[in-house]
# Entry
Amino acid sequence: MFFRQRHLKLDKNVVVFTMHKAGSMVLHRVLKDVCDPLRIRYHSENQPDPDKLPVRKIFEGKDYIAKHNGCFGPIRFFLPSRALDTANILLHLRDPRDVLTSMFYSYCFMHRGPVPANTGIRKEVADAGIDKFVLDMSSDEFMRYDGDYGTGGNYKEKIGHMVARYERYLREILVRPNAILVSYEEMVLAFPSWLGKVVARFELADNDEAYRFVAAARGAETEKPVSEDVWSHKRKVTPGDYKEKLGPETIAELNRRFGGVLDALGYASDDYAAKGIPQPAIYSA
# Structure
């Protein structure tokens, strides 16, 4: 007779929100590395059944998170749950201007999908240029883009354009006293301090042991590649890439559209420009 291995029950669920193109696959591997050795049940879009997060059913009204225990993430847009009132929430974000820049390369070249890279609609978008793409994705024009390819397009009617996604996180997550904000920029420039904040959300009996295990396994994943490759999922890594890829008029318009978001998350400050790691004006701990 075979017995299913019991999961370790957490006193509080850990719910991890992020964005597409914010290092979410590194985040996924880190969460999995914390959960698997300790037998914490890990619910994720990146997991196979029965632990695959049923995003579409959640949008249809099923409160999956409230009915289960463990870690949930990385969730790449806001999902509602009554469990958010009591969970330990982690919100991992990236400068939206860099997110949009990276998203262009995903849509046109990097991500797999029904239309091969740099053909059909994906080539049309590439030929139209990155400036048009980032402006469309941060306005209602994003609705006309077919497919997902790393943009969240499979759920576009539910999640809105990129400005709306960030603003919803400000309203729904960052106002909560049980939420902590971390950044992609800290992940790639100061991985040890970022990892310490992630592991702490689990409130483990031995956070240090989990930290050492994950640091040894994943510490090299955020290192900058030798050269940029538009076909690679790890294309460039370095914060501030938008300054090299976008025109000045496009940057000015994005600064206007994301003005409140950039201020709240620390991306409009001189300190961020100098050090590369944002210090948010809005921060819950």
About this structure: Residues 24-38 form the longest helix (15 residues).
